[in-house]
Amino acid sequence: MKLFKRIKNSSSRIKGNPGGNVAGFTMIEIAISLAVIAIALVAIIGVLPSGFNIQRDNRIDSLIYNDARFFTEAIRTGAKGINGLEEYVDVLNGKSAGGLTPREIIGVLSIPNQTNTAIVRSIAGTPAEMAPQTKDMAFKYQLSCALTSFRSGNTYPSALETNLYELTLKFNYPVRGDNTVVIRSATERIFRTMISGRLYIETNSNGDTLYFFER
User: Fold this and answer.
1) Quick one: which of 118, 116, 170 has its CA closest to 140?
2) Residue 14 lies in a domain
3) Tell me, what's the pLDDT at 41?
4) 159 lies in which domain range?
5) Could you tell me if residue 170 is inside a domain?
6) Structural domain tally of the chain?
7) Torsion sign, CA atoms 63, 65, 66, 67
8) 167 near 192, Cβ under 8 Å?
9) Calpha distance 92→131 (Å, rounded)
10) Predicted pLDDT at 7
11) Closest to 172 measured CA to CA, from 143, 204, 195, 196
């Protein structure tokens, strides 16, 4: 009989019988646990947007830095070895860039002593962004290119003025679907360098005057 009672009591505890020794959570404990989880979730959700923004800004800075190097070298070398650029440039000096070759695009951007602008879809972007179905989703910016003659003043030899130029590349973004810069939230990145060499002039089939550095 005693053995039967011990087995019965053990079975009641295993099944969670209220008369057993198994204790559960009270409503207060459950409420406190839910409150702690909620506070943690609010903190995590509050940090996520900031992390996404930092990741986005870092990616944009990387794209612009690589594109700045590309355009600098393209202008410095007189557009030698440049292929496929026409797929990324939509507007050039306020006109559609359709039909222009990569060499002609660089020739227009190299016109000295004036600011030449282009609407460009990032050259350093992923190939998936360049597909016809997704190219409108690619990162787009306005490129302002200014190639100005070096001014020696009284410090440097005057001969430098004929063979030395200052190149300024200015990137403004974001750009709307109609190829205009969003002024209120515009971000600007500027790159400057010096280019030495002699500019020569070509004329394309449309009668446009193009400039290239001799190499």
Assistant:
1) 118
2) no
3) 79
4) 48-213
5) yes
6) 1
7) positive
8) yes
9) 21
10) 45
11) 143
